[in-house]
Design a protein that fits this description.
Chain lengths: ~300, ~425
């Protein structure tokens, strides 16, 4: 399945994965973060971090509070312009895209969707409308950039039917079909989390970035979320997630990247990370580090 | 609420009223018999007003309960009923507006008011795109109205172009200025955007006032050509080649008024039609999404700048159309007509009607502009009446007459969304 023309640069960048041979089909990378540095004034939030997320896998980014996870995330999704380094998206059969050079809205168009730590839905719009806004770029092209549709050209209704169909699919995948016509702001917290994921998926991304998707969910909802994320992976979308709920992380991730004080301290399979003394030190505050343990 | 509480509540209301009226009503300066100023005291009237407030408050709290005075944006039982009635109300208003010139007893004066109201409805609907849908607070909307008016006046004066050619040109020019203003300022948010748009409105007015060679400054432009009926001018003389002559009817000054009425009626309907259509389409949804959460929009690949610009340009375009119409109706324009108070009135119409609601804006324009004209007999008291009415609406319905939002699409039945969930936009 691996294309013969996979760029050899991957190996040279020192971004080779340490995985066993039987997972080779998933080895192609989707996201490459190389030497990423982000400074805010004198504070270096992320310092020369390099890792790669593989296509069709769930990559988790973990670390104590203030480790730079969300900063890293905001760099990848275009909310911050990194001070240094590169972020590249490798879609199948396409040239790599330099995400760090794109303006914010282009990143979603390139195929990276995200959710937010503090949910950012459109609260006054219905669940269905939220999902249709997510398909704006596609629908806008079908309307002839707004002009054709006002004049009633025929291409738009079909595009809208397809968009509603896609929205309906994701509503039923996230178990929200019966709440489709309710305003997003009136949904319970867990449903809002799921709707945000559904909305991100409606942009039909190659890489879905989730910022603490399990925050504030009860154990049953966390289980449902884990199932949903595995289902999304099964459909061929790669995932990158920041998560504090170690139960979820260890159960579903294929690979775990650990940050501490803006530096990458581990990048391995979940089981290996759990036993890594550096990771344990970072979380338990061994030695000079006095980070609060949490997880 | 017990009677004792009700009385205490009413007493507080009366005390507030006393605080207000003690200076406003209680003391009055008059010209005395010797020609000097004397201070007249009117404690009787103050007592009367406080008594009215006390009795009124007591009556409201005991009859309707305190609950009736709570502000609300959620769709309550009576809003649901109003909405059902609203489905009939909008077509009914439309029908009345359509046949207005034919209704017996409607004379030239009434039609003039009708034209004025429709102009403000159109301006309200145009501004509703910017403020109501896209959530961008624009305090300088009158600038586009002025650009439209002056576009037509100057093009007609210098190039002799007719109204029907200038109408689209005025819209395009206003939209062009909307984009030109939008590019630098749309990165500003909230209060800052409001201040810059306010300044823009003033700049346009000051330029019109001082560029005397082009605009004739404060003297304005007079003799702006009236519109023709598809090439047939309205003339009192009648005869061949005029409207009356062509149709073989008695020449009458009311022909032109009726024609102007239908022109602005069609323009307002065009504004409404475009807005309603766009609302159900990606562009309109993107505007509303932008009002709800700009950051989420960006994460979904929506280009915030161009989306805001389209809202700004489209709103400006309809303002420009209305301006061109204003110029041809008045046949005379001067910078006097485009002061900040016009922007404020249009914004008040949109806010009182309910941000984003087409019917609400139409009703608010009808009540504010129509009511203002009808109550001309009240002289300066009408300002008090309107101020009071606005305060009452803002207290009881903080999100305007129609504070709810109707979804643009639904799998099942469309249910109104309470105003407390709908964002107001932060620019």
């Amino acid at each position: 399945m691996m294309p013969a023309d996979e760029p050899p640069r991957v190996e040279e960048d020192g971004l080779t994965r340490k995985m066993t041979g039987d997972r080779r089909v998933h080895r192609e990378m989707i996201l490459e973060v190389a030497n990423l540095t982000m400074r805010f004034g004198g504070l270096t939030a992320v310092s020369a971090v390099s890792f790669a997320a593989s296509r069709g896998e769930i990559t988790a980014v973990i670390g104590p509070n203030g480790a730079g996870k969300t900063t890293l995330f905001n760099c990848i999704t275009g909310f911050y312009r990194p001070t240094g380094g590169a972020i590249r998206l490798h879609r199948a059969n396409e040239l790599p895209v330099d995400l760090h050079l794109l303006p914010g809205h282009r990143i979603a168009r390139a195929g990276v969707a995200r959710t937010f730590q503090n949910i950012r839905l459109f609260p006054g719009m219905t669940a269905l409308e939220n999902l249709l806004v997510a398909q704006h770029v596609k629908l806008m092209a079908a309307t002839g950039f707004g002009i054709g549709a006002v004049l009633g050209l025929s291409r738009y209704p079909k595009a809208e039917r397809q968009a509603v169909e896609l929205a309906r699919q994701w509503l039923s995948a996230t178990n929200l079909l019966d709440r489709a016509d309710d305003p997003a702001g009136a949904l319970p917290y867990g449903a809002q989390r799921r709707l945000e994921i559904a909305r991100a998926m409606c942009t039909e991304p190659a890489l879905l970035c989730l910022d603490e998707p399990a925050a504030g969910l009860n154990p049953r909802e966390s289980d449902e979320l884990a199932r949903l994320l595995l289902e999304i992976r099964g459909q061929g979308t790669s995932l990158l997630l920041i998560e504090h709920d170690m139960g979820v992380v260890m159960r579903i991730s294929d690979r775990v990247v650990v940050l501490d004080h803006g530096k990458l301290i581990a990048d391995a399979a979940p089981a290996a990370v759990q036993g890594d003394p550096k990771v344990i030190a970072a979380y338990l505050g061994e030695g000079d580090e006095d980070e609060e343990a949490e997880a | 609420m017990t009677p004792a509480q009700a009385i205490r509540d009413a007493a507080i209301a009366a005390a507030v009223a006393f605080g207000l009226f003690v200076m406003l009503v209680g003391l009055r300066t008059d010209v005395g018999p010797e020609g000097g100023l004397i201070l007249r005291q009117r404690w009787g009237q103050v007592a009367l007003l406080c008594g009215i407030v006390f009795a009124g408050r007591l009556a409201i709290t005991t009859l309707a309960g305190r609950r009736a005075l709570q502000p609300s944006t959620a769709p309550g039982p009576w809003t649901a009923r109003l909405q059902r009635a609203g489905k009939l109300l909008a077509p009914a208003l439309l029908a009345v507006a359509l046949v207005l010139p034919a209704i017996p007893g409607i004379g030239r004066y009434e039609l003039d008011i009708g034209i004025l109201v429709l102009t403000y409805i159109m301006l309200g609907w145009g501004l509703n795109i910017v403020v109501g849908l896209a959530g961008l607070l624009d305090l300088g909307y009158v600038a586009f109205y002025a650009i439209g008016a002056y576009s037509y006046a100057l093009l007609a004066q210098y190039f002799g172009l007719s109204f029907w050619i200038c109408l689209p040109l005025a819209g395009i020019l206003a939209a062009f200025w909307g984009v030109l203003l939008g590019f630098p300022v749309l990165r500003l948010r909230g209060d800052y955007l409001a201040i810059v748009t306010l300044a823009f409105g003033e700049i346009i007015r000051v330029v019109l006032l001082n560029w005397t060679e082009l605009t004739n400054g404060p003297n304005g432009i007079s003799g702006i050509p009236r519109p023709s009926f598809f090439g047939l001018p309205f003339s009192m003389a009648g005869g061949e080649g005029t409207f009356a002559g062509f149709f073989g009817i008695e020449p009458s000054p009311s022909h032109r008024v009726i024609f102007l009425y239908y022109v602005i009626f069609a323009l307002a309907l065009l504004t409404n039609w475009v807005t309603l259509r766009l609302r159900r389409q990606p562009l309109g949804r993107a505007w509303e999404a932008l009002r709800e959460d700009e950051i989420a929009c960006r994460a979904l690949g929506i280009n915030i700048t161009t989306t805001k610009l389209t809202a700004f340009a489209l709103g400006a375009m309809f303002g420009g159309f209305a301006g061109a119409f204003f110029a041809t109706r008045q046949a005379f324009i001067s910078p006097e007509s485009f002061t900040f108070i016009e922007s404020a009135i249009i914004l008040a119409i949109v806010v009182l009607g309910g941000l984003g609601s087409q019917v609400g804006v139409a009703i608010a324009a009808l009540v504010m502009i129509g009511g203002f004209e009808v109550f001309r007999g009240l002289d300066e008291w009408r300002m008090l009446v309107f101020g009071g009415a606005m305060v009452v609406i803002m207290v009881l319905r903080p999100r305007g007459l129609v504070g709810t939002r109707t979804p643009s699409i639904a799998l099942g039945e469309k249910r109104a969304i309470g105003g407390d969930l709908v964002g107001e936009g932060r620019g």
